[in-house]
Amino acid sequence: MRPVPDTIICQTSFPKHRACSTVSERHMINRPSPIRLASRLAMPGITVTLFVLVMSTFVVGLVLWKALDARRTALSRVNPMCAI
Questions:
Q1: Where are the alpha helices (H) located in the chain, listed in sequence order?
Q2: Vertex 35, ends 20 and 10: CA angle to 5°?
Q3: Cα separation of 11 and 29, whole Å?
Q4: How many CA atoms within 13 Å lie on the side-chain side of 44?
């Protein structure tokens, strides 16, 4: 079995053939940043939250529209002059 050298050539796009001191350092170079990881994990939650918010707004608007329409219809039946 061949011994592992102290310096390992990393597989990165820049700079080419960057020397790493250990195997663990090589893995840390390829690890995504915590900010990028957090944004990647939060994106589905943000998307679902926005979708629910928009759909709730549409439903509330529809309920208000139908309530006002029902009020207008009820007022026009009682007094046809009150129809707006």
A1: 23-30, 34-78
A2: 15
A3: 9
A4: 2
Query: Tokens 């390829």 appear where?
Result: 30
- C-alpha distance from residue 59 to each of 23, 32, 63, 64, 69 (Å): 56, 40, 6, 9, 15
Single-letter code of the amino acid located at 49: T
- Say how far apart CA 69 and CA 84 lie, in whole Å: 10
pLDDT (tens digit, 9 = 90+) per residue, 25-84? 555 667 777 777 777 778 888 999 999 999 999 999 999 999 999 999 888 887 766 655
Work out the angle at residue 27's Cα, subtended by the Cα atoms of residues 33 and 2, and round it to the nearest 5 degrees: 175
CA nearest 20: which of 30, 31, 12, 9?
9
